[in-house]
Every structure is written in C-alpha cells, then in structure tokens.
Amino acid sequence: MDTRTPDRRSPWVVDVHDLSHRPGSMRTLTRTVPAPAELGSGVIGVPEGDELELDLRLESVMEGVLVTGTVIGEAVGECVRCLDEVREGLDTELTELFVYPERAAAAAAEGDDEEADEVFEVRDELLDLEPVVRDAVVMSLPFRPLCQPDCRGLCSECGVRLSDPGNEDHHHESID
C-alpha cells in the first residue's frame, strides 16, 4: 500500500473533495490520459504515451469512493506464432473501491496483511487511478495474442510464414 499523497498535477489523479464522506453522492468523469510506461506484458501492451479514454462513475459510499466504468484504448504486440504485429482494441471494465484512511487503518488492525496490500486509499481527498487502471488493463490483455485465430506460425527450418498464400503445402525434405 502506497502512503504518499498523489500529485494533483497528474492526469491520473482525481480530486474527490465533493464526494468525500458524503455517501450517496455521485459524479461521472470522462478523461483522456496518456498510457504510463510498461502497461502490458512482454508480448502485448499499450505503448507509453498512447491515449486511453476513461469513462468512469465515482460514487461515495460509507467505506470510501467506488470507481466503476471503462478504459478504452489500443494494445500493440506480436503474434506468439508468427511474430507479426497484433493490434487489439481495449474496452476494459473497471471496478475498485478506494477506502478512507481510517477504514484502511481499521482493516490493517484486524491483521490481514495480504488484503491490506491490495487496498487503494483516498489520500487527501485524491484518488490515483493509474494503479487501478494498470491492474484492469493488464488482466484483460490476451496471454497469447494471435494475428488471426488460425495462424500457423513460422516454419521451424527456414522461418517462412506458413499462413501466407502459397505456403499451404510448405515443407522441407528430410535427408536421413
């Protein structure tokens, strides 16, 4: 759990002073933000600086501020079979509760350290959305991206792309 106050100038930080400790209050937030570094896996991810569209609903509840909505963008990577470029549209659902510090302290006092590490807090009436969006986006990316579902990959002998036209019967003679 990060205990630093978020930087108000960051496009990822949202001021919730109008919602803080007012259960039942709600507002929407639509914002375009630059993708942070390393948003993805080694095979596919959102390039740093590319635009991500956040369409969120912020609701004040007794425990904190509930953030729900979608993250829209585009991930770029490599096909795991043929290494061609893969572009995958993102439309990722997001649901996360940012708890008030006093609620987080009470939960930590109960002794569940594993859960305490997964808690996002409202800090000085600010929410840092970057780690929440990062978690949601990375979990939604394909583990093994493919350029097309029936990609046949590359020839292990010469590296020719087997899905290209004319390579349907590609093979090499085995000399014994």
Helix content: 10-25%
Shape: elongated
Q: Rg from C-alpha positions?
A: 22 Å
The N- to C-terminal Cα distance equals: 61 Å
Note the quaternary state here.
Answer: single chain
Helix-strand topology string: EEEEEEEHHEEH
* Counted beta strands: 9
Q: What share of the residues does DSSP label as strand, in percent?
A: 35-45%
Mean pLDDT: 87
The main β sheet shows up as: 7 strands, mixed
Task: Flag low-confidence runs.
Answer: none
Structural class, please? alpha+beta
Number of helices: 3
List keywords for this structure.
two-stranded antiparallel ribbon; 7-stranded mixed β-sheet; single chain; alpha+beta; elongated; 176 residues; 3 helices
Helix/strand layout:
Elements: E1 13-15, E2 26-34, E3 39-40, E4 44-46, E5 51-60, E6 64-78, E7 85-99, H1 101-109, H2 113-117, E8 120-121, E9 126-128, H3 130-140
Parallel strand pairs: 7-8
Antiparallel strand pairs: 1-9, 2-5, 3-4, 4-6, 5-6, 6-7
